[in-house]
Structure formats: structure tokens, C-alpha cells
């Protein structure tokens, strides 16, 4: 790769046999390579200290580098990665004509002493095609992370991931709204979104690639076109491609809203949903969602309760509703 430079050391050739004792720079990170190859069998040791993760990214194909760096730069939370270093020892003993991944062993640690990614050393190992990562504990002013992971059959199409990922007191200001707007399934919901604020907690686990997560919401604010909506309380559960909303209590257009239901993302391009909604409409809501496009405006008065069952897709939505008007209430059209 273009990022590899300044290769020094000894390389002894004897027909097809090779003895090597080399070191090279990958950008600013030094890597040592030593060992021998005899009759197409290798016994090689690769080691490094203070290797920067960002330098490893620079060895990837240009287009892949651009995609990774775009993701890193799009979000302050993800952009912690360039502050993380590693040191590791990798051993390979086996044929170079037919590489056997199970013969690769790696032992190493991740660490960072730079803000905002200060955390204690995290050990990892790769043995018999199984990658294990010891508990990750990362804490700063914007969030706390606790995570572990084990990947079995790492080099197989049927690789299996098991682990936990817990995120506490995550500051929603870290979410890049532009990134959300670029996600096709979320684009209709984020068209007028300007910012998010508040904190959330997420408890998640993966068992043999089956993903489950529980997110508790409290005092989350949604800033939209000089208007602020607020989620006062509630829970969201993720099960693989299914999102479950449990007693979401919110104030939208200054009206109280209680929401339950589910959204399926099995079809990545067309989410399907089944929701139950209870609310008391306000004139602000009617003006924004109906009157702006209506030839004749709707005006409401008094205490009105709306119960609605909403199902379908964003392009084909079915609504069954029940509207109850208290005494002296009215809807004028």
C-alpha cells in the first residue's frame, strides 16, 4: 500500500527459502516483521507498539478509505476512533500457498490517553478463528460505554457474534442530523429536523447474531423549524429488524401524545408500521399538518380526543380513527 514506507532490515534469500528481520513505517506507526519461509511453509511474527488505528485505515483501498473517513468525520461520537492506539503480536505458522486463517494468532491491546477517548486498556485475542475482546469501559462527559464481544468462525461466512453493548447518559447533541437525513428509511421523518437534545440509555446484547436492544427515553427534545417537540418518557425496543414503541409519552405541537406500536425494517427500502395513537389535537397541529395545504381551513375548539390506529407504509398508509368531542367542543370547516 502507498501508506507503507521506509522499509529497513535484513532479507536473506536461498532459492525459495527466505529469512527476514524487517521493520517498516505505516504512516507514523512502526511494524516489525521477522521469521522465515521454507518449502512454502511460513513461521512469521509481526509486532508493533503504539500503532494508530487511523494509520491502519490508510492501508485500505482508496475508495474504502474515503467511505470510512466520511463516516468518522460525520459524527463526533464515531470520530473517537482516530484517538485510539493498539499494540499487538501476530503469529502465523503454516502454508503460504494455501493460507489457513485458523493458524493465525493475534494478541494485543487497545488504549488511548487522548481526549475525548480516554479509557483503560482493552485486551483482545484471536485464536482458532475466534476473536475475543475483553470489557471495554469508556467514560467521558457525553456518554459511558460498557461492551464485550466474541466472534466465532471469524473468517467464515457463518461467523457468529455474541456480546453486550451498554450506552449510558448518551448526549443526543452528538448525533449528526445530516447523517440521519441521508438514511432513506428516516428521510421523511427528518425532513424538518434541525437538532436533538437530551440523554438516553441503551442496553443491548447480541447472541449468535440475534440483536436485542432496549432504549429508555426521558426528556428528549426534538428541534424542528423553530418548534420544539419533547418525549417525556417511554421505551423503545429493537429486535433484529423490528422496532417496538412502548408507552411513548410526548408533547408534539404542544399536544399530549401517547404512542405504542411497532415498525418493521425487514424491507430496508420500505418500512412497515402498525401504531396506536392517543392525543388531544391543538390548532397549531391542525394548521401545520392540514391547513397549509387545504383550500378551506379547519378550526377546532374545546376538548377533543383522538384515538387512531395507523398501519401500512409511508407510501400506503391506512388510518382508523375515533374522534370524541366534549361538551361545547366543535370542529369548523
Mean pLDDT, nearest integer? 87
Strand content: over 45%
Unreliable stretches (pLDDT < 50, length at least 5) are none
Distance linking N and C termini: 69 Å
Rg over alpha carbons: 27 Å
Helix/strand order, N-terminal first: EEEEHHEEEEEEHEEEEEEHEEEE
Q: Look at the helices and sheets and give the structural class.
A: mainly beta
Can you summarize the main beta sheet?
Answer: 18 strands, antiparallel
Fraction in helix = under 10%
- The DSSP helix count reads 4
* CA-based shape: elongated
Number of strands: 20
What layout of secondary structure does this protein have?
Blueprint: E1 4-14, E2 17-26, E3 29-38, E4 41-52, H1 53-57, H2 62-73, E5 85-95, E6 104-112, E7 119-127, E8 130-140, E9 143-152, E10 160-171, H3 177-181, E11 193-207, E12 210-224, E13 227-239, E14 242-252, E15 255-264, E16 272-279, H4 283-289, E17 299-301, E18 304-313, E19 316-325, E20 330-332
Antiparallel strand pairs: 1-2, 2-3, 3-4, 4-5, 5-6, 6-7, 7-8, 8-9, 9-10, 10-11, 11-12, 12-13, 13-14, 14-15, 15-16, 16-18, 17-20, 18-19
Amino acid at each position: 500500500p502507498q501508506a507503507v514506507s521506509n522499509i529497513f532490515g535484513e532479507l536473506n534469500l536461498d532459492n525459495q527459502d527466505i529469512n527476514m528481520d524487517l521493520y517498516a513505517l505505516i504512516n507514523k506507526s512502526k511494524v516489525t516483521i521477522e521469521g522465515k519461509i521454507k518449502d512454502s511453509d511460513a513461521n512469521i511474527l509481526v509486532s508493533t507498539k503504539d500503532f494508530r488505528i487511523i494509520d491502519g485505515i490508510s492501508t485500505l483501498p482508496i475508495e474504502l478509505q474515503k467511505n470510512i473517513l466520511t463516516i468518522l468525520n460525520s459524527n463526533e461520537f464515531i470520530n473517537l476512533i482516530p484517538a485510539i492506539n493498539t499494540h499487538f503480536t501476530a503469529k502465523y505458522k503454516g502454508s503460504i500457498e494455501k493460507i489457513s486463517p485458523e493458524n493465525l494468532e493475534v494478541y494485543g491491546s487497545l488504549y488511548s490517553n487522548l481526549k475525548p477517548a480516554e479509557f483503560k486498556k482493552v485486551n483482545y485475542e484471536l485464536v482458532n478463528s475466534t476473536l475475543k475482546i475483553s470489557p471495554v469501559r469508556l467514560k467521558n462527559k457525553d456518554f459511558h460505554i460498557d461492551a464485550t464481544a466474541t466472534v466465532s468462525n471469524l473468517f467464515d461466512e457463518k461467523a457468529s457474534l455474541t456480546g453486550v453493548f451498554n450506552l449510558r447518559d448518551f448526549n443526543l447533541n452528538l448525533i449528526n442530523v445530516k447523517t440521519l437525513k441521508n438514511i432513506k428509511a428516516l428521510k421523511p421523518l427528518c425532513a424538518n429536523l434541525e437538532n436533538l437534545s437530551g440523554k438516553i440509555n441503551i442496553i443491548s446484547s447480541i447472541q449468535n447474531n440475534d440483536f436485542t436492544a432496549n432504549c429508555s427515553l426521558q426528556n428528549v427534545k426534538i428541534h424542528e423549524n423553530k418548534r420544539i417537540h419533547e418525549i417525556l418518557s417511554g421505551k423503545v425496543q429493537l429486535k433484529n429488524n423490528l422496532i417496538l414503541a412502548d408507552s411513548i409519552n410526548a408533547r408534539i405541537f404542544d399536544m399530549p401524545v401517547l404512542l405504542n406500536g411497532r415498525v418493521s425494517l425487514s424491507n430496508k427500502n420500505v418500512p412497515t408500521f402498525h401504531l396506536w395513537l392517543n392525543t388531544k389535537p391543538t390548532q397549531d397541529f391542525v394548521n401545520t399538518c392540514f391547513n397549509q395545504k387545504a383550500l378551506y381551513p379547519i378550526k377546532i375548539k374545546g376538548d377533543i380526543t383522538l384515538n387512531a390506529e395507523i398501519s401500512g407504509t409511508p407510501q400506503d398508509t391506512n388510518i382508523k380513527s375515533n374522534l370524541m368531542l366534549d361538551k361545547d367542543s366543535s370542529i369548523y370547516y
